């Protein structure tokens, strides 16, 4: 007998599809982009004078907030991605921030997705409890070949091109490399602690499509994620 609400059956099929594994990546991936090690770059800067500090992941935080979208957004979930490991350096020729530079890089395939403690700290928009299967499905979709393609483009890199302002408020023009493309952004920063230590706080909004990434969507947009993602960071160095 035909169900009274056939659209419910269709929605169930779409929701199941959203948790399915992403298509497998190509069998012969291209080599990941290789850059000169940051340690060597900053060792060379240190030999010319000034001060180099190494960013400390254990005392820092980098998190990416991804927001639900689509006509059935209320049935989806917001997500939080965190970088427990990264490499980063800060260099200042005079001990201040105005003439400084910095670099930060992390691997997409090392991101932690929807850590329960992170979700609990973010408020009602992240209050839903996600199963391990749901988290794994999110990882496969977001980092798979049809989205961020972490196998081909494993690194996100941030390089400061210019810093202006006066303590503790600065603006940095940065080049961000992601998905094999580089884009420039101005990022407001709050910098404290210099010259003894360094603490930098800030945030930036990135659009996935600016880097050639098509935001995840299923069912002709019934369930999706928003193009814009919010990156928040607190970076500490000694």
Give an overview of the whole structure.
By secondary structure, this protein is an alpha+beta fold. The protein has one domain: Lipid/polyisoprenoid-binding, YceI-like (Lipocalin). It contains 4 helices and 14 strands. It has helices at 6-19, 38-47, 116-121, 132-143, and strands at residues 51-54, 61-66, 68-69, 79-82, 87-92, 101-107, 112-113, 155-166, 169-178, 181-192, 198-207, 217-218, 223-225, 228-237. It has an 11-stranded antiparallel beta sheet. A 3-stranded antiparallel beta sheet has the order 3-13-12. The N and C termini lie far apart (70 Å).
At the fourth level of CATH, the homologous superfamily is Lipid/polyisoprenoid-binding, YceI-like
Top-tier CATH class: Mainly Beta
Identify the overall geometry.
elongated
Order of helices and strands: HHEEEEEEEHHEEEEEEE
Q: Percentage of helical residues? A: 10-25%
Through-space gap between termini: 70 Å
Radius of gyration: 20 Å
Count the E strands: 14
Q: How does CATH name the architecture? A: Beta Barrel
Task: Give structural attributes.
238 residues, alpha+beta, Lipocalin, 11-stranded antiparallel β-sheet, 3-stranded antiparallel β-sheet, 4 helices, 14 strands, 18% helix, disordered N terminus
Task: Compile the SSE list and pairings.
Layout: H1 6-19, H2 38-47, E1 51-54, E2 61-66, E3 68-69, E4 79-82, E5 87-92, E6 101-107, E7 112-113, H3 116-121, H4 132-143, E8 155-166, E9 169-178, E10 181-192, E11 198-207, E12 217-218, E13 223-225, E14 228-237
Antiparallel strand pairs: 1-5, 2-4, 2-14, 3-13, 4-7, 5-6, 6-8, 8-9, 9-10, 10-11, 11-14, 12-13
